Every structure is written in C-alpha cells, then in structure tokens.
Amino acid sequence: MSALLSIHGLRKSFGALQVTDGIDLDIEMGEVHAIIGPNGAGKTTFVSQLSGQLMPDAGKVIFDGRDITRLDMAGRARLGISRSFQITRVLEGFSVLENVALAVQARSGSSLRFFADAACERELNAVALECLVRVGLDHRAQERASHLSHGEHRQLEFAIALASQPRLLLLDEPFAGSGREEADILLSLMRRLKGQQTILLIEHDMQAVFSLADRVSVLVYGALIATGRPDEIRADPQVRSAYLGAEETGGAVGC
Ligand SMILES: Nc1ncnc2c1ncn2[C@@H]1O[C@H](COP(=O)(O)OP(=O)(O)OP(=O)(O)O)[C@@H](O)[C@H]1O
C-alpha cells in the first residue's frame, strides 16, 4: 500500500490549549482509517486541518505527493478531498435526486446553472441516480429531502459526498444520533464502500469502528498514542487505560 495522505508534525493550538500536538500519520490508499479518542481529544480540529477549514500552526500535509498545507478548502475539494457530516449539505426543499444532481453539477464546475437543458438534466440525473443506487436510496429519488428519516438523510449525505467523486472522504461522526437499526443500514452501506474508497473516519461508535476500520489511530490530548489494526488497538494496554477500558466499563469517555 502507498500513502495517499501524509501528515508530518502537525500542530495547532487555541490560545494556551495545544489541540494538535505533533501528529505524524499516513493514510494509505484504499483504507478505512478510524480516529478515536475521548471527547475534546482534538479529533474534529485534526480533521478540519485536513479539509482546509483550519490552518495548522506547524507541520505539513501531503496529498498524493503534493504539499497542500496552505491550500484552502475549495482547493482541496478540487483535488478530491471531501468532508461530510457535522456540516450538512442537504437542501431540504429539493428532491433527493435533485440534491445529488446539484452535487454532480458542482463537480463538473457549473454550480450556478440550474438544469439548463433537457439533455444536460438527463445526464446529471443518470449520474445522480447511480450515486443513489450505491447508497441504497434510489427508491426515494423523487421524495422531498425534508420527508426523509434521519437514517435516510445520512444515506443522502453519503450520496452527495460520492457525487463529487472524492479520492479521500473525511467522515465526521456519521453514526451520531442514529438508532441501532439506522446504524446497521449505515454500517452495511460503508462496508459496500470499503475497498473502493479511501476513508478517514472519526467515530465514537466502537462497534462501527472495530467492524469497519482497516486501521485505527487513538488520539488523546491532541497526540496519537497508538496506530494499528483493530485487534492490536483493542489489546494495547495504553489504549485500554486511556480510552477503551473506561468505555467498556461504562466510564464517561467517548459518546
Ligand atoms: N475554535 C476554537 N477555539 C477555542 N477552542 C477550541 C476551538 N475548537 C475546539 N476547541 C477546543 O479544542 C479541544 C478539542 O476540540 P475538538 O472538537 O477538536 O475535540 P473532539 O475530539 O472532536 O471532541 P468531540 O469528540 O467531543 O467531538 C476542546 O477542548 C475544544 O473546546
């Protein structure tokens, strides 16, 4: 495997609070890599520096061999880095299909032209429908987005993210707020994407993390204390005492 994204010595502080404390990490092409850690560990801040929403104080971010450390969010999106969840992009008054078609249109660089002609509309809709098939929401294509259930909203957000044909998908707590049934639908959807898509996943749902991730990194107080396969992370004594142990014994960490 080769690294699609390489992070070197990444640092970020808010005032006196060091929130990203010298992170070094490679995300391999095609892997699902989960970042776990207690509330306030700095997971969202870390991912925001990968999407370009926040600039690091120090360190480097290399994407496919190119230094993107100072590139803004739009520039990174053009290179194929897409962030989803915690920032919803669903237009509630539009149909499910229209929501995805608009994302396809945005990718093709004409975001202000709303369905200009019939041929263009057919083409956009066909590509959008493919994305909906991939997430299992094609049967709701004509439904208004506001009529979808919470779980279906998540599926739609996935379809919107896929419409931009991302090379790296940054997913920030996709399972948050889902009941077990919804979580199971999302889990099977993500299993289908596994291997086709490089994914960096922040997640508190340990069942999802340990069944999906190829590798897991554990962030505590802004620093990575371990990176490894799920079985290695589960067995790591330092991880158990800093995070998983407390989680398994019902301690107030994580969700
Ligand atoms: N813009 C900001 N200004 C000041 N402090 C911030 C800012 N954003 C985050 N923080 C602080 O940085 C720390 C890390 O926050 P962050 O949201 O990255 O953690 P997290 O691991 O994603 O937490 P959670 O699991 O609860 O979502 C927290 O103490 C938070 O209060």
From TrEMBL:
CDD domains: ABC_Mj1267_LivG_branched
Record's protein name: ABC transporter ATP-binding protein
Family, per entry: Belongs to the ABC transporter superfamily.
One GO MF term attached to the UniProt entry: ATP binding
Organism classification: Bacteria, Pseudomonadati, Pseudomonadota, Alphaproteobacteria, Hyphomicrobiales
Top-rank taxon: Bacteria
Keyword Aminoacyl-tRNA synthetase assigned: no
InterPro entries to which the protein is assigned, alphabetical: AAA+_ATPase, ABC_transporter-like_ATP-bd, BCA_ABC_TP_C, BCAA_Transport_ATP-bd_LivF, P-loop_NTPase
One Pfam family it belongs to: BCA_ABC_TP_C
Keywords: Amino-acid transport, ATP-binding, Nucleotide-binding, Transport
One biological process term in Gene Ontology: L-amino acid transport
Residue ranges of domain ABC transporter in the record: 5-246
Organism: Microbaculum marinisediminis
SMART domains, A to Z: AAA
